[in-house]
Amino acid sequence: MSEMVRLSIGPDMELSMSRTRAEQLVLSWSRQLGMGLSFAATELDGALVLSDDHPLWEHHTGLDGHRDYPEWDPETDLAAAQAFYQPIKSQAKIFFDLLIDHPGQQLSVDDIRRLTGDVFSGPRSVAGSISGLYRSHQASGRRYPFYWWEGQPTCYAMKPSVAELFRRARNSVDS
User: What residues have CB less than 8 Å from 151, skipping those under 6 apart?
Assistant: First the structure.
């Protein structure tokens, strides 16, 4: 879980939240105040959309399958992405396709449920669908192609360049 932080917002007033959520709030408030920050992030339908170089990617919650393997390379990994994508089925495929179709967009569990017509019953159902990606992940020799940030709510996202790689892989596998 992300480190908890406390933000003072006035005399005798503070907010307590995960570091990830605090960073999201800073970005949102910065945009609202017209201050801008040095890295690209936007909001789409209330969800944070991160560029490939956004620092929040480094603050994800993922463990071994995310930190111990190399990142996907959009220039050289098309065959590996096709091999990863081809065997995915059921809820894992629905989850994965959703991330491909929302590149860089942090989607909460509630977003995922809403966008998939309540295919998932809740956070555990979404997390459970990830187990359907394990074999593809192991065979690929690459990190999982998405990130997540544990919290209330947990959020998931795929870097835009990786989403584009997997969109190309999906198109070639499905055709």
Answer: 1, 2, 17, 18, 20, 21
